[in-house]
């Protein structure tokens, strides 16, 4: 069913690479979902207008946009894109009565309690404790993180964070060597610098440097394509290290929040790795916390396989606000 003009509501999920939009019908279902390249548009208002144009530019009343950034005040400046805009000016430009902006992993967290069956693929053992905190982590252009805690009224509260910008820590000599290469190049080596699209590229380059082989100008998609095809040895190692570092960061997050409700892996990269990810060092690295191995082995880890989960979370935010 197409939404009527009186009820037209938009949801969005904007990352450093992809800006996804959909309209919400009267039943809260997503309609006309489409992904636009973030870099093709000057700012949020321009991207929304480009999305609406082929639909006959229907008048919008309300929108909830999840974005890969902290929301602090009216001025929004994206970390992994040149976008910079005022939320209030965007609301006025789009003629909206209400524009709700939230962090993309906060939106993803809001969607998690409703996911079930094939929308969640469990990796390894453990089982979720009813009502216990859940955490989310997901590499895309950047590395998103958030947590989800249940309030006394039984409602889940999504807590956005910027854990992707916490400091990357090595767990073995080889990772220390890789980080040593990156420490020479970057002011601060955050987890995002090794666990994201850019991170996969950084890992590949650092490994090629350590191995003394020519560094090819490979993008993240090409590194993972080579790795999945068992091609270039440095690409193979880069993807293995990427999965291990993601597992280790997920384990840190689970320990920090006491996430007995489970760890949920989102973002654009892991779903593109197919069955490789389940067989990767992710879960082993997640559990490899010395005296806390047993604790972590009881916490389940899931890959989010749902279509456009952050858009569903943005729709939830619109309902709630
Ligand atoms: N097959 C692949 N393997 C690994 N990385 C890939 C692959 N395809 C694309 N990427 C990388 O994934 C990233 C884009 O991820 P995603 O689709 O989640 O975008 P996004 O939502 O805009 O990101 P974010 O929300 O983190 O800003 C880019 O860095 C890109 O290079």
Question: Would you kindly provide a written description of the structure presented here, covering whatever features stand out?
Answer:
Keywords: ATP-binding, Cytoplasm, Glycolysis, Kinase, Nucleotide-binding, Transferase. GO terms for molecular function: ATP binding; D-glucose binding; glucokinase activity. Pfam families: Glucokinase. It is found in: Cytoplasm. InterPro entries: ATPase_NBD (IPR043129), Bacterial_glucokinase (IPR050201), Glucokinase (IPR003836). Helix content is 35%, strand content 22%. It has eleven helices and 13 strands. The strands form three sheets. It has a six-stranded mixed beta sheet, with helices on both faces. Strands 3-2-1-4-7 form a five-stranded mixed beta sheet, with helices on both faces. Strand 9 and strand 10 form a beta hairpin. With 321 residues, it is α/β, with parallel strands linked by helices. The N terminus is likely disordered. The protein folds into two domains: 113 residues, ATPase, nucleotide binding domain (Nucleotidyltransferase, domain 5, 2-Layer Sandwich), CATH 3.30.420; 189 residues, 3-Layer(aba) Sandwich (Hexokinase, domain 1), CATH 3.40.367.20. The site of adenosine-5'-triphosphate has 21 residues, from helix 5 and helix 6. Adenosine-5'-triphosphate binds next to helix 5 and helix 6.
Net shape: globular
Number of helices: 11
State the order of secondary-structure elements, H for helix, E for strand. EEEHEEEHEHEEEEHHHHEHHHEH
- Whole-number tally of structural domains: 2
Q: How far apart lie the N and C ends?
A: 24 Å
Short précis:
With 321 residues, the chain is of the alpha/beta class. The protein folds into two domains: 8-109 and 309-319, ATPase, nucleotide binding domain (Nucleotidyltransferase, domain 5, 2-Layer Sandwich); 117-305, Hexokinase, domain 1 (3-Layer(aba) Sandwich), CATH 3.40.367.20.
């Amino acid at each position: 069913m197409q939404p009527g003009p009186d009820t037209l509501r938009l949801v969005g999920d904007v990352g450093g690479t992809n800006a996804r939009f959909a309209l919400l019908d009267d039943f809260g279902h997503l309609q006309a979902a489409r992904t636009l390249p973030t870099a093709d548009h000057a700012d949020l208002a321009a991207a929304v207008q480009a999305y609406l144009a082929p639909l006959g530019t229907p008048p919008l009343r309300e929108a909830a946009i999840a974005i890969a950034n902290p929301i602090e005040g009216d001025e929004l400046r994206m970390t992994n894109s040149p976008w910079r805009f005022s939320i209030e000016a965007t609301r006025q430009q789009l003629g909206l009565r209400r524009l709700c902006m939230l962090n993309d992993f906060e939106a993803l967290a809001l969607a998690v309690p409703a996911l079930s069956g094939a929308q969640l693929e469990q990796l390894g053992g453990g089982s979720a404790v009813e009502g216990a905190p859940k955490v989310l982590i997901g590499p895309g252009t950047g590395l998103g993180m958030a947590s989800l805690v249940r309030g006394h009224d039984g409602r889940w509260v999504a807590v956005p964070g910027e854990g992707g910008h916490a400091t990357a820590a090595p767990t073995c000599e080889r990772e220390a060597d890789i980080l040593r290469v990156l420490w020479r190049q970057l002011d601060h080596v955050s987890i995002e610098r090794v666990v994201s699209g850019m991170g996969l590229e950084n890992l590949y380059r650092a490994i090629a440097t350590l191995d003394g082989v020519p560094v090819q100008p490979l993008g993240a998609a090409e590194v993972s394509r080579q790795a999945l095809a068992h091609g270039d040895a440095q690409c193979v190692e880069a993807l293995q290290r990427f999965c291990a570092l993601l597992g280790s960061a997920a384990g840190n997050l689970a320990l920090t929040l006491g996430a007995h409700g489970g760890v949920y892996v989102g973002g654009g990269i892991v779903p593109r790795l197919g069955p490789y990810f389940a067989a990767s060092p992710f879960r082993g690295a997640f559990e490899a916390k010395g005296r806390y191995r047993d604790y972590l082995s009881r916490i389940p880890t899931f890959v989010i396989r749902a279509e456009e989960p952050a858009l569903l979370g943005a729709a939830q935010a619109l309902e709630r606000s």
